[in-house]
Amino acid sequence: xxxxxxxxxxxxxxxxxxxxxxxxxxxxxxxxxxxxxxxxxxxxxxxxxxxxxxxxxxxxxxxxxxxxxxxxxxxxxxxxxxxxxxxxxxxxxxxxxxxxxxxxxxxxxxx
Length: 111
Hints:
Helix content is 61%, strand content 0%. The chain has four helices and no strands. The chain has helices at 6-17, 27-49, 63-80, 85-99. Helix 1 packs across helix 3 (63-80) and helix 2 (27-49) runs antiparallel to helix 3. It is extended. The two termini are 33 Å apart. The mean pLDDT is 92.
């Protein structure tokens, strides 16, 4: 599978959503969906890495699948608000590099 840029992913999601009359959900509905997907991710992480194993009757899902669902809804949310996620990412990385540049203990060279 070919690697995609964030802009390409946003366009792919927009092309998909644009084929339906309903279009994007409202920002509040998007936030609710994002929260729902985050809860599903938390449940999977707890099953695989936490103290709560799956019941024998529970459907097998993966952390990867849930992260994908979360990413899809996040892209929908950004698209519905006209937010360029690449630009948002660049701004937040600049903020972390500037604000937190000396906050954490750096690894030694060669380790």
